[in-house]
Amino acid sequence: MYLNKQGNPGAETADVVVIDDELSICEGCYQTLEADGYQATTAHDGRRGLELIETMHPKVVVVDLKMPGITGMEVLAEVSKIDPTIVSIVITGYGSVDSAVESMKIGAFDYLTKPFGPERLLESVKRGMMLNEERRAAAQLPVAPEAGEAAEGPALDQQTVALRSLELLGQYYSLGLDKRDFLGELTHLEAEARFHAETLGRIREREKTLHDVLENLRVTDEVIALYGYEKSAVLQVMLEVQRRLNWLPRHVLKWISRRLKVSLGRLYTIANFYEALSLEPSGAHLIEICTGTACHVRGATRLNTTVSALLGIQPGQTDSDMIFTLKNVHCLGCCALAPVMKIGEQYYSKPTMKELEGIFDSLRREKQNHATVEVA
Amino acid sequence: MPRLKSPDDLRELKQKLNRECDPRRTCVTICSGTGCIACHSQNVVAEFQREIAEKGLKGKVSLRRTGCYGLCERGPIVVILPERICYLGTKAEDVSEIVTETLIKGRYVDRLLYEDLETGQRIVRLDDIPFYKNQERLLLEANSLVDPKKIEDYIAIGGYSALAKALFEMNAEDVIEEIDKAKLRGRGGGGFPTGKKWRTTRDVPDEPKYVIVNADEGDPGAYMDRSVLEGNPHSVLEGLVIGAYAIGSQKGHIYVRQEYPLAVENTEIAIRQAEEYGLIGKDILGSGFSFTVDIQRGAGAFVSGESSALMSAIEGKVGEPKPKYVHTAVRGLWDKPTCLNNVETFANVPLIINNGSDWYNKIGTDNSKGTKIFSLVGKVNNTGLVEIPMGMTLRKIVYDIGGGVPKGKKFKAVQTGGPSGGVLPESMLDTPVDFDRLEKAGSMMGSGGMIVMDEETCMVDTARYYTDFLAHESCGKCVPCREGLRQMLRILDNITSGKGREGDIELLEELSEFLQEAALCALGSTAPNPVLSTITHFRDEYEAHIRDKCCPAGVCKELIAYQIDADTCIGCGTCAKSCPVDAISEIDDEKSVYVIDQGKCIKCGNCIDACPPKVKAVKKISASVLLESAG
Fold this sequence. Notes:
Chain A is an alpha/beta fold. Helix content of chain A is 56%, strand content 11%. Chain A contains 15 helices and nine strands. The relative contact order of chain A is 0.05. Chain B is of the alpha/beta class. Chain B has five domains: 21-131, Glutaredoxin; 159-360, NADH-ubiquinone oxidoreductase 51kDa subunit (Rossmann fold, 3-Layer(aba) Sandwich); 371-454, Roll (Ubiquitin-like (UB roll)), CATH 3.10.20; 459-547, de novo design (two linked rop proteins) (Up-down Bundle), CATH 1.20.1440.230; 557-630, Alpha-Beta Plaits (2-Layer Sandwich), CATH 3.30.70.20. In chain B, a hairpin with a 6-residue loop joins strand 5 (114-115) and strand 6. The relative contact order of chain B is 0.08.
């Protein structure tokens, strides 16, 4: 039972100290933790909180960052002086990621974004308890086994990863993403970072994806600015983004939707309507075969059949190595050269089977060489 | 560059440019249209630059990249002025010889000259080549005189003088009157009188008004607008500004297909240069009239070329047509009065303003004045862009300009009007080409695609091709078009794959009538034209497909098969090398011969071309024959 006052009369020790100026949060945390078998105590300001920590030596401290008087940051700094084995978890308000990043830099182990559910709290505290045990065990050892190993213990790794992802999200945030969306993204990333910290490779991939996402959004922003944030320029914006990225990923469409205040539904309608826009990633080389009347009469069907057979893909498909995407287009306007094939900016008039093989081989080699260089 | 503040400034600039450039000086012009660029004309340009510098001709010979010359299949085209020596199919490795022989010694490089198809004689001058001799190149001529990326070239040949004339010597009403009297009709396909359209837009008491250049050339097999916009964008801009002045508009859009990157690029450059000279923008030439224009790229949808659809696209919506209870001239872009004209229509305007409607009326027929540019393509010897006076017969275009059907094959039909048009058989070749007579003959002028078909073109397949195209491009908004075309396509698919039934032809006719009556926009109501006209003129081909399961032209894949004649095969194996699916293998049966595995064959037809002409062992046969011989 929560007594609506600070401290826990009668108890001399506590596993968890919760410090928050919002009484409702304190009450919620207290009840959740007690119900799960922890001994908890609460404080409504930083000064009282520190007193409790000093007297009760808890294993875990849950502290709000934004409080009148002594702030959460200051509490954090003090806690590590009092007892470095105590694990701190911070509570942050809406999307103040930057401060979350800061807090983790000065030693916070995890953070909870308001509003958070009981499961989230318990889960974090549980891991905090485990880390505390590890820390205590390490502190009792007479000599640290190996400096390198200690520095790269699992907890630290986890923290580095979470930090790195957070910093990325900070950048993401600085682009002005809506806060609610951002929260969703953040929660998702948290979960990811927590459960897969040991598989750093996967996280790196995610980081790369995030980097790509960021890059795509930057490109999109550039294009939107180029067209003066005009709502009516939406088709032009989509065309230009398509030209630069080769396709229109979902996050880009969402971004355009938000920036130009055009519904996502309409963007999808437009993307589906126009031939030139693609919702699927395409290969490194776009092969366009003209199916205009002049080309049709002069054997575009044969060209199509031959190219399809050579590449093993049908029009509209991309090969498994992501090198070629085959597309049929209605008239490239080179009717006198029919039948016409276009790869990138280069037009080919009446290519023979032998020429086609040569062209595809050299493009494949180019891609392989490129890949080798990247690996090296 | 200095801003031109009056018509006098423009005149002075022109005189200055003319003084600087001696017309008698040798100038090598190299076509830099998309067709020639595709044939690597840029390499030819680079090589000329190098050779001219190396052989000390700098200052004596100038070099110019021009717009499309028209004879695209024979590119890259090099024309040497002032004599107008025309070299075709010029490669970078030919340049050194041209410089030494022609530029220095004054001799011709025979093998690069045009060879007359019948006499085998070489023709030196561009204007003597039959392809050019029979044309009347009012619009296209300028393509060869200007570098589209240099506004000065256009000003030097009198460009923007029509604009100056309109702004300072005529009022808006005079301009419309002149266009009206010239009987200029829209070149996009409809043939609506341009003057009337301008006046309607002008008379609507609503502001602002918009003008739009329609360069969303969606007709498959047509590229006139592309070449005009690429080769001489200023002529379109000049016509546009004159139109805007007449209508009372201050804002224009040019809607170009994104498949035409060079047209977009050249138009962008042209707009920028015209703005710098004060020919577009605020207070044009000091007249007080202001006008701005921007470029919008279309994203590859045929139906977006329709006026109301195009306006929706500019507004940032999906480019689908709207029912036109009120004409777009009254309520168009952003619900304001909007005048939309085709590229070629606008390009005609400066000519009419400069030379007067009387001059213009001397060219063409009663109700169709001036010239029309066609893209003469398909099974014809000289393929490319041709500009002819209205009223020339189809025969003259196909045979005199186009040089007839290649490889001695028999002419079958010519198709005009794109997917909304029809095919005209040999018996109708003497039809004069103008708006009304083509329509009377069962086809239409369209935007200018003219596709020649020979005996190896299947007319049922052609109808299927257009129906497939239209079914794909139908926006799906109205039921007759969406469902009607789908059903027609299904029937045609059946016929071309040997599953046709008696009564199919009648069913097609019935559906066609239904579409003509009930579709919402012109795409749907004209969609049956290719089907109807092929049925009218080539009903026997339909019947052969349905009754005999045979494609007389040997096109429909399901109805043909390829076979190697064991007696004539010499076992060289070139066919096997040309097969993309390895369906051809060697068997030893007394002598080495090759056979096609019919199960693997995808009927691409590469083997028939690969087989040496002396041998001709690969044969195209009717699939039913193969079945009979097998069974």
